[in-house]
Amino acid sequence: MSKTLFDKVWDTHVVRKIEGGPDVLFIDRHLIHEVTSPVAFLGLKSRGIKVLYPERTFATADHNTPTINQHLPVADPLSANQLKALESNSNEYGISHWGLGHQKNGIVHVVGPEYGITQPGATIVCGDSHTSTHGAFGAIAFGIGTSEVEMVLSTQCIMQPKPKKMRINVNGKLGVGVTPKDVALFIISQLTTSGATGYFVEYAGDVFENMTMEGRMTVCNLSIEMGARGGMIAPDETTINYVKGREFSPKGEAWDKALAYYKTLKTDADAVFDKELTFDGSTIEPMITYGTNPGMGMGISHEIPNADQVEGGAATYAKSLGYMGFHEGDSMIGKKVDFVFVGSCTNGRIEDFRAFTSIVKGRHKADGVTVWLVPGSHIVEAQIKEEGLLDILTEAGFTLRQPGCSACLAMNDDKIPAGKYAVSTSNRNFEGRQGPGSRTMLASPLVAAAAAVTGVVTDPRTLIESIKELV
What we know:
Elements: H1 5-11, E1 14-17, E2 23-26, E3 29-32, H2 38-47, E4 57-60, H3 77-93, E5 96-98, H4 108-114, E6 123-126, E7 140-143, H5 146-155, E8 157-160, E9 164-171, H6 180-191, E10 199-204, H7 206-209, H8 213-221, E11 230-232, H9 237-243, H10 253-262, E12 275-280, E13 287-289, E14 297-299, H11 314-324, E15 339-342, H12 344-347, H13 350-360, E16 370-373, H14 378-386, H15 389-395, E17 421-424, E18 439-442, H16 445-454
Parallel strand pairs: 3-4, 3-6, 4-5, 6-7, 9-10, 9-12, 10-11, 15-16, 15-17, 17-18
Antiparallel strand pairs: 1-2, 2-8, 13-14
Pfam families: Aconitase (PF00330)
GO biological process, one term: L-leucine biosynthetic process
EC number: 4.2.1.33
């Protein structure tokens, strides 16, 4: 029987099928952080259960970590306690722990791929909704709840109903200034935040085939924002070249065996999906959100639509625009920007900082705008310095912070003040997501850079003098 990529990976990991119920799925890699793991470990201790395969679990601190002065004690008591609990639990159960100060510390969905923990054809879970990031490698990756974290720690398995299958094809040549983040926001704007509910999505077409691994991770990261259980892209030479030689990647004969497996990970030509959509990539332009969920996005040159043009009801729509202080028919171009945030598991990789720097080079940070540039890991931080990007950023009036989740969800000191507007490269623009009362506009690193040097929402294409400036 012909199978999709998703079928191939899922079916080979089923330990037991429950008639009329969920599958018992074996998990290859389990990623944990300080927020969702403490209660799971308490559950293990209360039942006297050990971690079954500690070598398959990897812990890093990211959500609560400060992004300046990481050598100092964490001031917030709750954050400090959660960070300490992660360290003590990891040590007690023999789990690799990359805490503050560790050279491998960083955002869980950035360091996982960097060190080869993320591999094609694997099943990967984490107590974090944006675990879908790892699907960029042809893995089945999804977020789980605290009780499920405990289940995986104790059994290395999880009980899950098999999702339906959707394929989203995007073909054509992307225009100048259009990034993978724009592709993802465009898709979400077309499907809405619930359009892929119940599905696992495979992204296909030459737009994704031509993306770097960083770009593919950005797209898969945002799969959850249209309701999907996860997203994945078939591994190819780009994937294999990225994975090969990394610390936790297979070596020697094991690599040869793995490589043979990786090459089988593609959807069969006549495989059938439950739903299939196709978009023309040449019609996508730089995107920006105007409301309070990632589905409320539009091309940056467009005007905010009227209520009868969107789903969700007029009252809900009015509430969202009211929170943002925007109106139907408004242009986003020229809207005031108070903060710019570049980072998160969506856009905290080296490619994102190269793009940001390509716009700000030769320009200067706008007065009155606070800019937080937060690398996703120490590897990214080092690359920014080694490639000379930091010199360009410093000359333009910017400073670089230390790795962490930062202003993505404001569980640390990086909070957008109430009523202030932020252009953010993160993944969610819910009310108060980046701080109580904060107003978030999701966008790409290029749009963020354009806002950082002008102080207002600006189409980055007006600042790009040539295609060659894009990295």
